[in-house]
Amino acid sequence: MRDLSIGGALTISAALAAASLAPASPASGQPAVESFYRGKQIAFYIGYSPGGGYDTYARLVAQFMTEHIPGKPTIVPKNMAGGGSRVASGYMYSVAPRDGTALATADQSLTLQQALGDKSIQFDHTRFNWIGNPDQDNNTVVTWHTSGVRSIADAKAREVTLAATGPNTTSAQYPVVMNLLLGTKFKVVNGYPGANDANIAMERGEVHGRGSYGWGTGKATRPAWPKEGKISVLVQIGLTRSSELADVPLLIELAGNDDDRAVLRLLSAPVAIGKPIFTTPDVPQERIEALRHAFDATMKDPAFLGQARLTNTSINPVAGDALQKIVGDIVSAPEPLRQRLGKLLEAAQ
Fold first, then answer.
1. Is the pTM of the predicted complex or chain greater than 0.85?
2. CA triple 12-17-22, angle to 5 deg
3. 122, 89 in Cβ contact below 8 A?
4. Of 30, 105, 181, 234, which is most buried, counting CB atoms within 10 Å of its CB?
């Protein structure tokens, strides 16, 4: 799974092909786990403000996952915005109890930032225990219908302002790298607390678009936008094209040579992490197994899937053990590739 070299294909795609959730089976040590969780609360820290994609998925999973954890503890979502979700991740690494009573979701780009040596990452993603990702969902760069920008060609011809939550998140990384490798003229406006705030800014005309817009999440939170032609999708970021965006180019496909393509592939790889759910380091193994089992069972729960359909929320999960391997592979990508992407992203600072 570590063929991340320049010119090589990410074998993360092969990992994802094998990452469909296995048939649910009782977790080992269930009596002890049930005794531990009975009557307890699990705090679920959401690294962004309410109303955005990470918040939407976290609250949906929390609503149903409690029924599948032995002892049925109450799961309480808590928004902890700040630093592009670094505040929540830092809290999980250094402060939150290491007993399985804390869950979190944070920006998918943070694993890549660790791989690139970002000094603001004061935690090791390989030490978190990854529980699962409810949706493998391509990201996109979108513009508002009144902006006059409808394609990458348009973005090469004029300046386009894009809302971003912070300089070290995908919402800033994608446009900055595209400027340097593809010749676009994106201007990143950082500082929006979350996706919902960026959406409002785009609607109001404060910016022309968004630097990172999860396609499935967008359909759930703003289902009328694509139907009514309110947004234009300039490019999609992932390892394969979404079937719903068959005519929209992948970022990887826009590369001018093999070395640039390898860089864009590494930049695109964290999309597989999606809207991840993880717990702290050092949690007893039987509780990690129980939480992963509960996540897997939730992803197949008819009530959960029914609610997802009602809210137009895409569900395409990755199991916790596969997610753990994907995180490890990104962090350990070949150094020359990490160094080149890191230098490109310095422009986002």
1. no
2. 120
3. no
4. 105
Give the model confidence (pLDDT) of 34-56 as tens digits: 999 999 999 999 999 998 889 99
How many CB atoms neighbour CB 90 within 10 A? 20
Identify which of 157, 317, 300, 138 has the alpha carbon closest to the alpha carbon of residue 233: 138
Neighbours of 235 (CB within 10 A): 25
Q: Which domains, from first to last, does the chain contain?
A: 12-136+272-338 (3.40.190.150), 139-270 (3.40.190.10)
What token pair was written down for 184? 């676009």
Span 95-117, average pLDDT: 95
3-state secondary structure of 122: coil
| Residue reference for tokens 């499935």 | 216
Secondary structure E strands in 124-244: 129-133, 139-144, 160-163, 186-189, 209-214, 231-237
DSSP reduced 3-state for 202: helix
What number of H helices and E strands is found in the chain? 15, 11
Please give the average per-residue pLDDT across 192-210, as a whole number: 94
C-alpha of 201 from chain center? 21
CA distance to 96, 274, 318, 324, per residue, from 132 (Å) = 19, 9, 6, 9
**Contacting residues for 143 by C-beta, under 8 A, at least 6 apart:** 149, 150, 160, 208, 209, 231, 232, 234
Residue matched to tokens 């992932």: 238
Q: Which amino acid is residue 344, in one-letter code? A: L
